[in-house]
Every structure is written in structure tokens, then in C-alpha cells.
Design brief:
Layout lengths: L8 E4 L3 E7 L15 E7 H12 L4 E7 L3 H13 L2 E7 L5 E7 L5 E6 L10 H8 L4 E4 L9 H6 L3 E5 L12 H6 L2 E5 L7 H8 L6 E5 L5 E5 L2 E5 L14 H15 L4 H15 L12 H10 L5
Parallel strand pairs: 1-4, 1-8, 2-6, 4-5, 8-9, 9-10, 10-11
Antiparallel strand pairs: 2-3, 6-7, 11-12, 12-13
Length: 307
């Protein structure tokens, strides 16, 4: 945070420490007790990737979420301090810091095992959250149960509200409805939908000025608005995909920075999000080297594969 200036964007969600377990072969060898792997710890989860992503792009960023009074919580606080992220809304979870173990396959795929500690029972200080959000332009919310209570505050303050539904399966699932109804801009992963267009059309209904963006991994992404649905092929990349953790978060961060904070057209904003996501896929076991504003601008201007 620079001086007493208000943040431009407030990230609302869960942060923690990820342990990525990189398999040397195609899968776990279940015939033996021990597998030799490369295990890397880093600050991650949706709140970690998005907060650090905005900070890397030079945006004044605040975070609202929880960590424990433990070494993992200290790791998060240190990373956020290094990034200049406003931590006034970083509350204490008595159960400890959230953890994820990601079994990582050689082609970049993962299988996630998530321990959210006490998040389902937490309730943040709403007045303090209001003061953190005051003056910001964008609220980027993830699916923490407690986060739904902050959405009306963000709307009341006039912020653009973006919500990430993650790997949604059933669009009618009750848990996600507060996020769906509150969002000006919706994101979701199409991992569970071979054709995400019908789901996008469902989300576009009954919205005054809807924007829905779905990440499709190696297939690119798809954008839905009142004008219709547009497919964007993946950005070219000449560095291998080694780790898909944080790719969807980078897509959202790149898009929202361009569209909401910089006022760029939708197609250009999508491309910037895709470039950020492709860059994230080249990073192994870290959220410390997400794309910078300088790198992103150079890549856009070149219009060439990442080198």
C-alpha cells in the first residue's frame, strides 16, 4: 500500500500455503509404500494468487481473509508484506492457516486436497472490511462462505464486483447463488463442461450488463455478453506448461486489471488475461514470479510467444 492511498482492488477469499507434489512418472505408484517426488511449498490458493497477481501488475491491492498464528501464516504475511499488499483485513483463524496439497502430473494437471481449517465458521469484522473497501474500484471475491457477507457492502460502496465460481458443476447449487446474484462479472472454470456455452447463457439471464468469462485450459477461453458468445483460442506459448495452479486466477486478474482498472476494450482485456494465465502455467511451485506489468505490455506489443 502506498502511503494512505486507498486500494484499487480488494481481494476477498482464502489464502494459505500450497504443497505441490511433483510426480517423476505418469502417476502415483500404488504398488509401493514410498514414492520419490519433488515437494515445493508456496503461498497459494485463490486469494494468494489473485492478490499477488494484482500486486505484480502494479495495482494497489488489499486482501480480506484469514491465516493462523503459525509458521504458514507467517509465510503468507511475509509474502504479502514484500508485495506491498494492504493487510488490514487479514484476520486470525484460530484453527490455523489453510493448506492445500496438490499432486502434480508431468503435463501440468493436478489433483487437489484442500484443508480450509476454520474457514466455514469464520465471520470477519464487517465494519473493518467496509473501511478496507472504501475508495476501491474493484472487489474480486472468491467462494469462501464468509465472503458472501461482504458482497452487499461492496455493492453499497459502488465497487465493481467480480466473483470466481471456480470449477462449478451445478449452476443451481445453493452455495454459489449469493455470488452469482451479486457479481457484475463472473468467472468460472469449464473443467466440468465440454461446452460451457449453455452455462454461460444461463448466467447471462436477468443481468443488466452481464460479463461472463470461462477458462477452458488448453482450449482457450470463452466470453459471454449481451452481444453473444465469443471463443478465444489459447495464446501461443513456447515454454512448456509445467504447473496449472493459479492459471485461472491469472486469467481473471489480467482481464479485470485491463477492463475495470484500465478501461480497455473487452477483446484486448481477454487477451491480456490469457497472456497472464499462460505465463502462470510456466511457473513451477511458486506464486512469486507472476507476470509484471512491464512483461505483460512487452508481450502484448510483440504479439509473439513468451520467451
Amino acid at each position: 500500500m502506498e502511503g494512505l492511498m486507498s486500494p484499487e482492488v480488494v481481494v476477498i477469499g482464502n489464502v494459505g500455503v500450497d504443497t505441490n507434489v511433483y510426480l517423476p512418472g505418469g502417476d502415483v505408484d500404488w504398488s509401493v509404500e514410498a514414492n520419490f517426488t519433488e515437494n515445493l511449498d508456496h503461498v497459494g490458493q485463490a486469494g494468494g494468487y489473485t492478490s499477488r497477481g494484482y500486486a505484480q501488475l502494479g495495482r494497489r491491492t488489499a486482501f480480506i481473509g484469514h491465516v493462523g498464528d503459525d509458521p504458514c501464516g507467517a509465510m503468507v504475511r511475509e509474502a504479502f508484506t514484500q508485495d506491498g499488499i494492504d493487510q488490514r483485513g487479514l484476520f486470525l483463524d484460530p484453527a490455523g492457516t489453510a493448506r492445500s496439497v496438490n499432486i502434480m502430473y508431468r503435463d501440468g494437471r493436478r489433483k487437489n486436497f484442500y484443508d480450509g481449517k476454520g474457514h466455514s465458521a469464520l465471520r470477519p469484522d464487517l465494519e473493518l472490511c467496509r473501511s478496507v473497501m472504501a475508495g476501491a474500484r474493484l472487489a474480486h471475491a472468491h467462494l469462501a462462505d464468509w465472503a458472501r457477507h461482504l458482497l452487499p457492502i461492496a455493492r453499497n460502496l459502488g465497487l465493481t464486483v467480480a466473483c470466481d465460481l471456480q470449477d462449478v458443476v451445478d449452476p443451481e447449487e445453493p452455495y454459489r447463488q449469493d455470488f452469482i446474484r451479486s457479481a457484475d462479472i463472473l468467472f468460472f472454470s469449464a473443467a466440468n463442461h465440454a461446452d460451457p456455452a449453455p452455462l454461460i447463457r444461463l448466467f447471462l439471464r436477468n443481468r443488466p450488463d452481464p460479463i461472463v468469462l470461462a477458462g477452458m485450459g488448453s482450449r482457450g477461453c470463452i466470453l459471454g455478453t449481451r452481444e453473444g458468445i465469443t471463443f478465444f483460442p489459447p495464446e501461443p506459448l513456447d515454454r512448456p506448461v509445467v504447473d496449472t495452479n493459479g492459471a485461472g486466477d491469472a486469467l481473471a486478474v489480467g482481464f479485470l486489471t485491463a477492463y475495470v482498472l484500465e478501461g480497455r476494450p473487452l477483446p484486448e482485456s481477454v487477451r491480456r488475461g490469457q497472456i497472464a494465465a499462460r505465463h502462470a502455467c510456466t511457473l513451477k511451485g511458486t506464486s512469486s514470479e507472476l507476470i509484471t506489468a512491464k512483461e505483460l505490455e512487452a508481450r502484448v506489443q510483440r504479439g509473439q510467444p513468451l520467451r
